[in-house]
Specification:
heterodimer; A: Arp2/3 complex 21 kDa subunit ARPC3; two-stranded antiparallel ribbon; 11 helices; about 75% helix; B: mainly alpha; 2 domains; 8 helices; flat; disordered N terminus
Chain lengths: ~300, ~250
């Protein structure tokens, strides 16, 4: 899901850049403060490893292959904030040094694969703990959340530009989610396999890592994470449902030959406004969720400081 | 056991003998990013054809082999073909053609930057524009480690192949996924040791986290001319798009 330049409407990619820059600035400031110089090569190793893993194709079936994204693996080994930084480094290298993924679209790529995907995985780890079954689930969910965000951006571009950019939602949403539901299974299997293998062969790389941010177990952070995960799952379901509904309704109407009902849809404009309001709601929702997570972080840090005093 | 040294095709392997190598990386970086941003806003045929012709001409003159450039396009192909097909169905052939031109021109512009500028010059230029230090040392290490990992991976791929592994199957093939994830895990374990050696060697040589290259950045009149070309093309494209001239 590396979005190239020229595919997205300018309004959408500018919004993507705005969110990505703010979130990353916070993440990098935090990571920069808590990490020593010695941890940088370890983070780089994981970044290079995930970069390589993204080149490792696995079979999906029907002759197609997919590849890893690696957000859940990064979260498992480094914690959420460092994972965001590492995923961003991977995207920068792919964009700037290998020409995979664009410059204007980099903000959106960061948002999908370096912010939304790791946050989703982190949410599941925080809720379910780091167990053998939570790893594949978190990996699958992170892929789905990223794909849903990507499909949403494609359809928003299409609607906002009146068909000059992006892909129409009725095609993009089922295609992206359907394909990535399968890709996500592969991601879950491989992430689970890597974690199990490392735990067995090199436990020092997974456990007792000085760079790992401990998963919070406080009640209010759990509540915030619950909201995030529900929001993510709800978004995915909403898209699946609305895409299915739209197609179903249309085909039913076509079959029945009810042409005069069409104005009830409000024509093209009404459809567009629907998506526009969905976009606005999505952005506000994301900002709200982000604010909740950020505040949870602040409170946790404050609580830790009072504990140590 | 002896093993051939790392000789993987790097994206910047032809940069030193390309025609655009001598130009200031800072100028190239700004020019290319500026042009890509302008391209993203274009939605008419005329300005897109102007931009496409310009970047294609610069690439043809760059002395970088076409086969090497092709690799960059191949990576983006899935995300060109699917949207363009969808666009043909929903909006007609013309918007699809425009979108193809937009995507391909942007990729060409990026290829122009990354195939004619050595990686470390590019990183140094980014640092000059106050790109964050943590991120640039992360990029520096990651880029180096990628080739260390490719080396390890190739070795294990050959070992896997020698034992009859083909990678065929589907999501239900348990053995395929077991082998692949164990391979990936082993790559981490082996590289961890090597990465720490590389890091210690760097520290012993006085590494501070800053990108240092022998090349001194110096903007010459020729760089001004290079930048002016990009500005002219961008202005012409914007004017064509807004219908101000021609």
């Amino acid at each position: 899901m590396h979005i190239p330049d020229g595919l997205m409407d300018p309004a959408v990619f500018l919004a993507g850049w705005a969110v990505a820059v703010v979130v990353l600035a916070v993440a990098m400031a935090k990571v920069g403060r808590t990490i020593d110089q010695k941890a940088v090569p370890l983070m780089a190793l994981l970044a290079a490893g995930i970069f390589m893993a993204q080149m490792l194709n696995f079979p999906v079936g029907f002759g197609t292959t997919g590849h890893l994204i690696g957000a859940a693996l990064a979260v498992y080994m480094l914690g959420p904030l460092a994972a965001m930084v590492v995923m961003t480094a991977i995207l920068l290298i792919q964009g700037l040094m290998f020409g995979d993924g664009g410059i204007t679209a980099l903000g959106l790529n960061i948002l999908n694969m370096a912010i939304i995907a790791p946050l989703t995985a982190w949410g599941i780890f925080a809720l379910a703990g780091r167990s053998t079954w939570s790893v594949p689930v978190a990996a699958w969910a992170s892929v789905m959340a990223g794909a849903a965000a990507c499909a949403f951006e494609l359809s928003a571009s299409y609607t906002l530009s009146g068909g000059a950019y992006g892909i129409t939602g009725s095609l993009a949403i089922p295609a992206m989610l359907g394909y990535h539901a399968l890709i996500g299974i592969g991601e879950g299997l491989i992430t689970g396999g890597i974690v199990a293998y490392l735990t067995k062969v090199a436990p020092e790389m997974v456990r007792g890592d000085p760079t790992a941010v401990p998963v919070p177990r406080k009640r209010y952070t759990n509540a915030a994470l619950g909201i995030t995960v529900l929001f993510g799952i709800g978004l995915v379901l909403f898209f699946m449902f609305s895409a299915g509904m739209g197609d179903g309704l249309e085909s039913v109407m076509e079959a029945a030959g009810v042409e005069e009902v069409t104005p009830l849809f409000g024509g093209l404009m009404g459809y567009g406004e629907d998506y526009l309001s969905a976009l606005v709601a999505g952005i506000i929702g994301f900002a709200a969720v982000f604010a909740v997570i950020y505040l949870a972080f602040r409170r946790r840090k404050a609580a830790e400081e009072t504990e140590t005093q | 056991m002896t093993w051939p040294p790392m000789n993987h095709g790097e994206i910047d392997q032809y940069s030193v003998r390309s025609r655009w190598y001598g130009f200031d990386p800072r100028v190239k970086l700004v020019c290319v990013i500026g042009l890509v941003v302008v391209t993203a806003f274009m939605r008419d045929l005329a300005p897109l054809v102007v931009i496409f012709a310009f970047v294609a001409a610069l690439l043809l003159l760059s002395r970088v082999p076409l086969r090497h450039l092709g690799g960059g396009i191949v990576l983006a192909l899935p995300f060109i073909i699917f949207p363009v097909l969808a666009m043909v169905i929903t909006s007609g052939p013309m918007p699809a053609l425009l979108m193809t031109l937009r995507i391909v021109s942007s990729i060409f512009a990026l290829m122009l930057l990354i195939t004619t500028t050595p990686m470390f010059d590019l990183l140094k230029a980014m640092r000059w524009f106050h790109f964050p230090a943590l991120m640039s040392s992360l990029l520096l290490f990651t880029y180096r480690f990628i080739f260390v990992l490719i080396d390890e991976m190739e070795r294990m791929k050959m070992a896997r192949k020698a034992r009859g592994f083909t990678g065929r199957g589907s999501l239900l093939s348990r053995d395929v996924f077991k082998t692949l994830s164990y391979t990936a895990g082993m790559v981490f374990v082996r590289s961890n040791a090597r990465a720490m050696n590389i890091y210690n060697a760097l520290m012993a040589r006085g590494f501070t986290g800053e990108v240092v290259t022998l090349r001194r950045f110096k903007a010459r009149p020729a760089d001004g001319a290079f930048g002016a070309m990009f500005v002219c093309v961008s202005v012409i494209a914007i004017m064509l798009q807004m219908g101000v001239a021609f």
